[in-house]
Records
---
Amino acid sequence: MPKYARLKGTQDILPVEQPYWEHLRMRVAEIARAYGFERIDTPIFELTELFNRGVGDATDIVEKEMYAFKDRGGNEIALRPEFTAGVMRAYIENGMQVLPKPVKLYSIGPIFRHEQPQAGRYRQFHQFNAEILGVQDPLADLEIMLLAWDIYDSLGFQSLAFQVHSTGCPICRPQYVSLLAEHYRAHADAICDDCKRRVAVNPLRVLDCKQPQCQPIIAGAPKMLEHLCGECAAHFTKLRGYLEHLGKPHTINPRLVRGLDYYTKTVFEVWAEGIGAQAAVCGGGRYDGLIELLGGHPTPGVGFAAGMERAVMVMQAQHIAVPPLPAPLVFIAFLGDATARHAAQLLRALRQAGLGAQIAMGGSLRSQLRQADKSAARFTLIVGEDEIAQDVVTLRDMATGEQETAPLNGVAQTIVERLG
Ligand code: HAM
């Protein structure tokens, strides 16, 4: 056993896995930019209070999962357990409220939750996240949902489907919540201990309880969609109309409530065929009260976030091909100590000419050539004493195996010509 091991729920992303990550990051950035989203990076830690208020005191994330602590200056801070609250803080703090609407932002980075690790669930993981601010029309919900969909679709994910629901708003939700609580109180003997607690602190969460004993109670519970106010019902109908018009398969899931308190109206997930059966790969929804709650002008918003580890797992499980990361074009091998400085000078000249190049760091010529083979370089340059005396080098085309003698001065030019 090594003396130090990585902490539970964390991962090393090794070089062999990097092509998947790079491909995923590139796709996210390409598609987000093509759809008019601009990148925003916010700090990895914020005041704990921001998440308490934004995500909600009674959520699992804040209650049980946040990496929250006092720093050396005595500030109560937390490693971000999600992007949205921090992005909203940045939007308010940087005066972005005066920008023309919509403001469309995306982010990529690490997220921290002290959860029980299992396949696809970590304590440090990565999300890509997108938000649209300033638009009440469900066209913004549609745009966010399509961004998520198109990213997975472009990666080659199979059997994509939307799950959608509405969680209402401060006008209709309280009435629904009291009906739900009444239903649960009537079945108090039959429900699990967690649900007994949830009914008191976060009643909507009873709907996504997985305990077998609670399933009949959920099935018989009043349905949010039957208790939406006129505005929320119209919003949901319009969104569904957009989805139907575009031929996007979606299932209304009355148990979809999601684990963050800020949601109003639309909530959704994208499901995909993953390592086994279809399951959620990302989730999001509308949060029309959040910016005001955090001290900004009332501004509607809608967004989603997606776990990147899960996306990489699916890419690997489904054998989705990803392009290899580009290796330096040229590998320089040299014969003997006396030629090392000439080889280093050549390396410098190639790099200055804009060609990617690396050099062997000692060893026999044989082992250097083995390294050249492994390096995936397109050309190997071999620098020997005789060659130096004649101002030439040996240039090997690794694709064809052909070898030629090229003038030392101007070898970069020769390489460019050989590349056509
Ligand atoms: P969330 O559902 O908490 O939403 O997380 C979004 C996604 O992050 C999940 O669908 C999953 O892919 C991934 N994820 C969550 N926890 C873990 C974990 N422990 N390990 C690996 N992946 C994980 C949010 O975070 C909201 N902020 C989304 C949002 C943005 N809503 C509006 N705007």
Note: The mean pLDDT is 95.
---
Amino acid sequence: MKRYKVQKSGPLRGSVSIPGDKSIGHRAIIFGALSRGECSVTGLSGGLDNVATANCFRAMGVDIELGDRSARIRGVGLRGLQMPKTVLDCGNSGTSMRLLAGLLAAQRFGSRMVGDHSLTRRPMGRVIEPLRARGAHIAGTSGAKPGALYPPISIAPLVEGEFISGIEYDMPIASAQVKSCMLLAGLYANGPTTIREPVLSRDHTERMMMALGVPLETAGSMCRLDPQEEGWTRGWDPFTWEVPGDPSSATFMLAAAQMVPGSQVCTTGVGVNPTRTGFFDVLRFMGVAPHFESQGDGAGGELVANLTATHGAARATTVGGELLVRMIDEVPALAVLAATVKGKTEIRDAEELRVKESDRIAVMAKALRDFGCPCEELPDGMIIEGGGPLRAARVESQGDHRIAMSAALLGLVAEGETIVDDVECVETSFPGFPELLRSLGANIEVEVVS
Ligand code: S3P
């Protein structure tokens, strides 16, 4: 078991290159595996979630060589996957399981997906039910909430004459995982897939599909994929893609710079797809907008920039609604930043956080209180009364990478020695997190404990 030991730190200064975007990494591996030849993907984070996706495809006969931050994928085409030799282990990765559910439900072979302790408690009815409505033979497992479905997921093959049907689906919640699941199933469907989200969630799948020539159209928070469209040959050529840095990882470095007085931190090569930049907008509302230097268009229709945060006197704010969807993974980092900002910061419309890798509302509210920051937990968020003195605390990550990294940030500004237990989970999305933070001057050590 590993833990972080963190001490109050002086100003953080310097420039860090941010590891690859987890969401884009998953999709690059999926679209690479389904392409008609050898693809090269560079700039991956090296995180275990992406490795889980790659391993699932390996089990289905796709040859994937994974380097430290790269992948060479010998794509087998849309119809080339083989029946998995093993159960598909998605580890901690909800994205792997939900996206693959759509793809696997459309195959003429059966499969079974499992996950770790945290993933096994995450709701899967949100993909199982709409896939069943399209004719898929897919089943989940009962669990904590009566009527709800959880992993493992079992999928029986579509037999001769059976197809995934077209669908017009009004999604009850904004979710890129559900949307992408439906679009992947839609590649094999015998009719169009039309999706409407209440608010547009991250649109990496749509951008990649369009970049690869898949007949997909988008309009606001709507998209439509029609695989029968004239002229589409049902497939795409191999590609070479460089994955941009993960804005969700950059967030931890930029938030740290806003928390520790005197800091100035530049994060380079960060993906700034507008569906992901809600946290940077919140920093602007707080009066501490990061400096933005465009680096142009990256592969797959993604925008890239260098972002620099200079510590300033931030003001408390309220976030919710559409903005929340654009920063869903950044809420723990906002919560710890808010603890250092004088006044009340209110986070609303964030109920989805209760079903992430942990119940992030409950776990963050407790962590903040343990550090001495008053925090009221709400059903859909929290109210944080920031700016008071913070004392070091001991935090159990609950196996959630973003909790572990957020708690480490609090340790940089709290009096005393903070311990964050069970930090292996950080490897799922941000390998090298403590080393990068230390390279900026943070007082953080990793300890191996038995
Ligand atoms: C992801 C979508 C988000 C996000 C997750 C990654 C993706 O989940 O929280 O970390 O890559 O599609 P939802 O869109 O399901 O909320």
Note: The chain has two domains: 2-20+244-448, 22-232.
